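Quick one:
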Amino acid sequence: MFGMLAPCPSRTPDELKPRWMGHFCGLCLELRDDAGHFARLTTNYDALALSVLVEAQQGDDADSRNAGPCALRGMRRQRVATGEGPRLAATASLLLASAKIRDHVEDGDGLAARPGARGIAGLTADRLRAKATAIGGSIGLDTAPLFAAIEGQRGVEADAGLGTPLTAVTAPTEAATAALFAHAAHLGGRPENTEAFRTAGAAFGRLAHLLDAADDFEEDAERGAWNPLAATGSGIEDARSLAREALADMKRALQSARIVDATLTELLLDRYARHAFSKTFGSSCSTHRPPTAERRGYRERRDYRKDRRYERRSRYDHGYYRPEPRNFFAGLCAFTVLCCTCQMCCREEYEGPWSRRRREGCCRDCDCCDCCPCDGDCCGCGCD
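Output:
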């Protein structure tokens, strides 16, 4: 379960929670049926926006069905989305997962850096790509341009240097997401929405890319890894400004589209997107700033070394350090246990299956720290 549009219970009206879960479960079941159980690991929060956009154009005519009990939702039944919307979301999830694994293979980092894992990772990326192509073909989506755009990202990054505009680096991501959003207009039976959705998709891709770059800024600097903000000399504040513009562009584009029911669309692509922005950069409200005076514009990371619940004492220097990450198979076993016991959804905190870092359950209660206190509803606030 990945992506920037993670659910925020305190910002989600009770009547919309079952609908959001219906799309989430619909995507998961679509991945299972069309690509196998393993593919369910690629479930992506951001891809849900595609399923929601298709449904938003169809209203009550959108396809759905009753699903049986599932451990991931506390053995409760659920009305889930079906049809072309979840298939488009499944295509996007598999496409993103394939591209991410391929990046690790080519860079020789992550799990792909472990002995014997590189070949398996490469085969996995190829398999996910083939499944994405097959599912995309079933809904009339040509995935070749999408993969070409994603594969072109490496060349763009290689050519980027000091002074290169950030928009040049985010362009491949924007092109891929724009194509996916545009196809949602076709599947929803509203071809007149194509250009509006294409514009919203490009803005969404830019926002996701910038948030990811800002989130990884410190970690990439420590590891000596490539980061677009450092490579182009743009910095956090430039990324913040562009991300804020992307939020506004996406909102205007969606408002110009003809949508039957925009309730869930506004939740994901407005409220959740602004929440993701706030977690990374601080509030999207022009008049609100986090109380910390020395905040540097990105989310401050907790020093896990100070949390004794997730540390072990070193017998060499008597200091504290984070537990060693698990290998692929041990992490897979831990992931299975966490999923089957619903800890990844319902537990307030749990230990990451591979990294062993402290994580927070996706359905936990939260106080939405660093969000604009008015959430854009107050007069004269200037929120985007």
